[in-house]
């Protein structure tokens, strides 16, 4: 599960996704011919639940670790910027 605090986008998809929790589905295949059990990742998907007229519909969006890390990094930066802005300070914090 990944949690986004703010709306985000993923490369290759034009629409913005709302903040919330998203399930990640990873497909792997067993590597044959090695002396130990090993797997190779073949695909990574982000599970997107439908909203509005699309309620009940679930979509698996093909993505990769790099794009997910990029989106999470942007989410963290945006969240930290908002937390540290002067508008977010309470009157008591202004006095310190």
Annotate the secondary structure layout.
Elements: E1 2-4, E2 20-22, E3 24-30, E4 39-49, E5 58-63, H1 65-84, H2 91-95
Antiparallel strand pairs: 1-2, 3-4, 4-5
What does this structure look like?
There is one protein chain. The protein is α+β, with helices and mostly antiparallel strands and 96 residues long. It has helices at 65-84, 91-95, and strands spanning 2-4, 20-22, 24-30, 39-49, 58-63. A hairpin with an 8-residue loop joins β4 (39-49) and β5 (58-63). The longest helix is centred in the last third of the chain and has 20 residues, at 65-84. It is globular.
Task: Give a short synopsis of this structure.
This protein has 96 residues and is of the alpha+beta class. It has helices at residues 65-84, 91-95, and strands at 2-4, 20-22, 24-30, 39-49, 58-63.
How many helix segments? 2
What gap, in angstroms, lies between the N and C termini? 38 Å
How many runs of DSSP E, i.e. beta strands? 5
Summing up helix and strand content along with how strands pair, one would put the structural category as alpha+beta
Radius of gyration: 19 Å
